[in-house]
Amino acid sequence: MYRIIAYNEPTDTAGFVIHDPAVNESVSEGKLNLKQSDVNDLSLTINQDNPLFGNVRPMHTHVEVYDEDKLIFRGRALKPTREMKDSGQFLQTYVFEDISSYLIDSVQRFLEVRNATPKQFLEKVIEEHNTQVPAYKQFNLRTVTVDNSKDNALRTIDYATTQETIKKLLTDSVGGFLITEYKDGKNYLDYLKAPGKDHNNDTPIRITENMQSASVTIDPSKVITRLIPLGAQIETQNPDKKNDDSSDDGTKLSGPMHAVNGDWGPAIKFAAQCMNTKVTNAQVATIKNVIQHESGGSETVVNNWDSNAAAGHPSKGLLQFIDTTFKAYAIEGYTDILKGFHQLLAMFNDSNWASDVHTGGWGPTGKRRYDKLPVEIVASGGGNWGSPFPSVGHVAFESGQLFGVHPGGEFRQNGFHDGLDFGTAKYPGTDVHAVHGGRVTHKGYMGGLAYYFVTHSDDGYNVVYQEAFGSSSNIKVKIGDYVKTGQVVGRRTTNHLHVGVTKKDFNYAVAHSFTNNGTWIDPEPLIFGSKKRRMLRAEQVVADSPLAKRVVADSPLAKQALDIEAGVKLFEAAKSSHLKYETNYLRADILSNQAHGDCSSFVSYFLELAVHETDRTLYTTDTLHGFLKKHGYALHYEGNTKTLPALQTGDVFILGKKGAQPSHTAVMKDADTLLECAQGWSNGYDQGGADMFEHGKSGDENLAAWWKRNSQGWKGEWYWYLYRFGGNIPEQESGDQKGGTIKSGVRYTIAPVNDGKDYLEIPDFQKEFGIINGAVTWDDVKDPNELLSKAKAWIRNQKASTNSWNISALELPDYDHFKVYDRYLFVNPYVADTQLLTVVSKEIDITNPFKSTLTIGDKTPKLTDYQNENRNISKEVSKLASTVTTISGDVSAMRGGAGNSSSQLQTIYDRLGNTNVPQLQKDVEGIQDFSKKADERLTTAETDLKTVKEDDESTKQTLADYQQTLAKYQQTIADLDERLKKLEGGNDSGTGV
Asked: How many C-alpha atoms does 747 have within 13 Å on its Cβ side?
């Protein structure tokens, strides 16, 4: 029997009874939920006659629930609900949470705790909690038994509640259970590793005694019958260890010695590496600015107009050295002043280069660092790069085979080709040779690539070989192999080999295969050492095509370069200056002092900087069309659709029909981010002024919102143009593109020590469940033998299923009440084998004190236990079916009047008494005296049969009663058979789930 005492305030010592059947006081409904890993709660519904009605103050009113004289719950009121029934009765429902909720009422300040055991850490947390709350919410830490290998871990507290802190940094991290208790007016807290005890001989959950219902859901979906063990990720880039001929042992280096697709950044970095000096991305950007200022990127330009020229020693080349200064710093063997890489080496040979290099005029002031290069350089296209078909040499490619945007490649998305195709017509041969040294990091099959593999070199290149191999067996290398330039790596069985080169993560690069944003690099100058891309032959270009008009020697398309970063810097400078919006483009000075500007002046200067155009001309939205077409852009779309297309770096929008107003223009920084100069609005710097806006994936107005605002709210006829750059866009130093250290995603396997197989079969499980593949990862294992050992140990300990339980049981006076955390013996052979089950939560019906619903913790039996349990249940069901069949024959004989009815009834009674059938032998209302009432019913039946001759109708009725009993037995068998089929994974037809 349960009693509930209420207190108006938590500090009150005298309360009032709101539920106690012994004094005729009760609640209308009451459910108490006791939980293993959550806050216990109590829900009470009361009517107008209860003294608690109308007297509850949330957070003030407390209640205590007693089981006989033992306190099992103390908590505070939370949520009141008031209602009126259709009968006119008024009810109130309240939810109470137990005292552990006090831990929500305090916040742990920022603190880093090192080298503290769980007990020491919890002491600090509770001490801080107690300083923030009144005495009745304070806790006394009593018992801590949790202690493990994570004791010394750094724990960082960052303004979380005390409850959240304990959960995150203790129970979720190192395990254990937090248990609270109110005793003698104080709150106590225990942190235990394994609370609860085993009840092997007392308080069983047993059919025919206290079990009302029981169900177990068996889930074998996590079973693995073919295991693929995976170890640590294979390292594909280790700066301290050189393994391929791209850099040998660190004394032989290979890298770009010319601008790559118009970008001098890679050559600057390689020159610094050769001169044993480090250069940051910011310093690279500064050097690129100096190059742009001094020579516009030309290696051979000579200045014939300044004072140096007048004195007879003009400045020359990439960095505009004069001859005498260049000779003072030039490295032996690299003394050609008209070679840009030689000048870069000379620049880095200045001991003060970091401070000497700046825009506005530069010159070396430091000492000469080296006479000879401290490393050996192997030029690109030499020993470290080579043709995949070396016997052929360098043969002109067809237009559609070239990297980038060219006639013949229109079928590709955006017309962009991310690599170089070696066709059999011009590059015959079957053996495919490595074009660059590296380690094999990927190998497999992918739509669009077919069978492929990827190598990653010490100097940072990912090279993909694809579309040449009809099957995996045509690839002669495996993941982890190191290959040298010229080594045979496969056999071509198709009409071409595609070679792609990138310095980005391979998975990222594949996702941007048709995006010309600098992710992919032209392989031709790397492989063949060409100083610049060869021009297309005139006959390769359709005479009247837009491309034919654009392909001229001086066009940026020929140089294949769009320097987005140069334009982005203009954007950032203008944004920081808060320029004024000036619609008269002739007054715009956005480039010089960032005072005035509008959309077209911004885009004009942005593009002129990006294509390195020295003629600083301003364009309107009307005249911008012509500028774009002359500088490597082609019209990609024009029309009035309101659907935003897929975009890429450098795309230019012109909104509004040519010659009409209004009009607007903007440019794409990358595939997801648009830059514009526009008149300010409420989210801008200055209402009515101007602002530089960056519309990306997020922000006050993202790209999609920008498009919707313009396309749906355009004042005038909606019409727009999209121009797309046809050349190459060098790899950006910043932006959304992901670069950095390459990680292959490939892991160590057991294949080297398992006859080439990366998996292990598990025959016993396969016999039970069929073939189910699954991978298990050990992140710290690199040795295949160790990995194999761990995999075999995992197989030995694999569980066959996850079993979830739900049990309803009576709490009988003869037994102790069930307790959360304790483990009880489950006895019902028709549901599962006898075993100890842990109670993880318990729902108590306050108004029905003998009934409890128990939630049992999931169990994961091993395969043998799983199989044995199925067999045992099958035997019990078969045994019961046999008994019922025999009884059916006895009842039929009685109905026919054969034999002695009394002895036949006794036989049936004996058989029934020896068989546990839940549906017949449990009675919720009177289970405690079941046996007594069964005897009384049997005596009555026997008496009726003895007078069968006097009252034949009574006999027939008795037999009818037993026939109904038999029908119940048969229904029981049908239910049990259905359960068994579900356990065995079958259905009525026996054909599977």
From this structure: 16
